[in-house]
Amino acid sequence: MSAIEQTPFHGSADSLAACQRFINFKQSKGNYFQDVDGNKILDLNAAASGQVLGYNNDDMINARDSELYDRFVTHKVDLNTLPSHDVADLLRSHVMPAAPKGLMQVHFGGGSSATEANESAIAVALTQYSKAHGKSVNKLCVVGFDNSHHGSSTATLSASSERANPNNLPAFSWPKAEFP
Questions:
Q1: What residue segments make up the domains of the chain, in order of their start?
Q2: How far apart, in whole angstroms, are the C-alpha atoms of residue 116 and residue 162?
Q3: What is the per-residue pLDDT across 18-49, written as a single tens digit (0 to 9) for each?
Q4: In what order do the strands lie in the sheet with 32-35?
Q5: pTM of the model
Q6: What's the chain's Rg over C-alpha atoms?
Q7: How far apart are CA 171 and CA 135, in angstroms?
């Protein structure tokens, strides 16, 4: 039985379906990661996730001061699709103590890009403002900055400068301000 079949990790149905393996970060090196079953896999997506130095890069490791830095800053892996074998324990011990009282769940966005992070932030900001002020989300906008690029989704392109959208993808006509 593989590690994925034995794990007590229970995410949403979507995240479980997308989860293909658990990574053994300590055994991963350079452009290869090793899963907990001992398989060594060439990570062709590393550069897209900011992992251009590879796993266990000596300079990055020497710069860190904790194991969590090593595992989550150095490796920068999406917890939804490639969680480590002890992800549930780490959430319980490091994330949940900081959660607001009464909140018992953690949601990680896609985690694979700044576009997704910015898209989530925009959605939360617009939704919360809408609720707090009784306004329709459809009537709200986000002010972006000239000379900026916030991502490639409709909302993030709408908050970015026109030059960030060379393919002329559909975007909202949200206002732009000069970068301070």
A1: 7-98, 114-177
A2: 19
A3: 566 788 888 988 888 888 899 998 886 654 55
A4: 23-29, 32-35, 40-42
A5: 0.49
A6: 20
A7: 21
